[in-house]
Amino acid sequence: MGNCLTVGPNEALVVSGGCCGSDTKSYIIGGWAWAWWLVTNSQRLSLEIMTLQPRCEDVETAEGVAITVTGVAQVKVMTDHDLLAVACEQFLGKSIRDVKAVLLQTLEGHLRSILGTLTVEQIYQDRDQFAKLVRDVAAPDVGRMGIEILSFTIKDVYDKLDYLSSLGKTQIAAVQRDADIGVAEAERDAGIREAECKKEMMDVKFLADTKMADSKRELELQKAAFNQEVNTKKAESQLAYELQAAKEQQKIRLEEIEIQVVQRKKEITIEEKEIDRTEKELIATVKRPAEAQAYSMQQLAEGQKTKTVLIAQAEAEKIKQIGEAEASSIGAVGKAEAEKMRMKAEAYQQYGEAAKTALVLEALPKITAKVAAPLAKTNEIVILSGEGGRVTGEVTRLLAELPVSVNALTGVDLTKIPLLQKMASAEA
Prior knowledge:
Elements: E1 2-6, E2 11-17, E3 25-29, E4 32-36, E5 40-46, E6 50-52, E7 55-60, E8 66-77, H1 81-91, H2 96-115, H3 120-125, H4 127-143, E9 147-158, H5 163-351, H6 353-372, H7 390-410, H8 418-427
Antiparallel strand pairs: 1-4, 2-3, 2-5, 6-8, 7-8, 8-9
């Protein structure tokens, strides 16, 4: 029996041996293989990138200057079948540290040999070319081991005698000297050029001032001419504008009048239609109902008239009967009153003045009541007089005016009655 072995893409599985003394070797990358117990051997080889840092200390260059160089190399096992078989022969069973040590010694040896053929300036100034040279020289040797150099770069170059710094100082001093010379020459040329430019500037300025004065004078003349022409054109334009504005205003006014006329016509039409509508509405809502109401009232009036006539006829007949009855009654009363008056007249003729006096005395209470009726609501009468004797005079005057008042109310002259004449004489 045996085992089924698997391997990832970052490793190579080497299966060797087999039944019947087979010497076949199988190389599997990212796959699987069958291994028999006891007769089959399986080993693994890493295909991952290995980082090497070769370092050469105090190596003399072509000029005999000792320098130290460090670099960085990225290498890996090649996956080609033949080259993979070579790598397996060289490194199978070794650890990654042992493989790195072999490759590191190879690279450092080639690095030392190349450093002895170059000057310090070539190594320091062109590191990329130096690294390319190391890579090209070392690649065949490591390739025969089944190893591929992916990249090689120079990390640092320095020495213990400050040769590189002195070289830099010399270069810096030369550059500084050239810079100072360049600055001085530039300042000199700048001063010369500045003076020339100032002279040219003054010449140009004087010429420009002259031309400017001439141009200004011509400009003022042209401006005066232009202003005169512009003012003339403005006046003409203003007059033309006012004339045109008046014409346009007149046209606008005519248009407004026409619009008003049209509007008025439309309003008249609308008013006529409104009148017709109102008339029809009045006919429908007022006239027709009024006619119906008038007819109804006419019928009611005729009926009321008939009723009133009949009632009036009945009332007339009633009044006639009542009148005849009252006339008869009044006639009888009148005859009685006439007889009474005749008898009073005969008595008055018989008694003369005494009868008249009795009649006046009989009427005086009624007259007094009528005269005193307005004074019934009077609580108090105050007669104001400055003297005590005038109260008596006022009362006498009132009594003297009483016959006049009675005569005005009744037509009877009290002064002609003998009894009163006697009373008045006695008082006098």
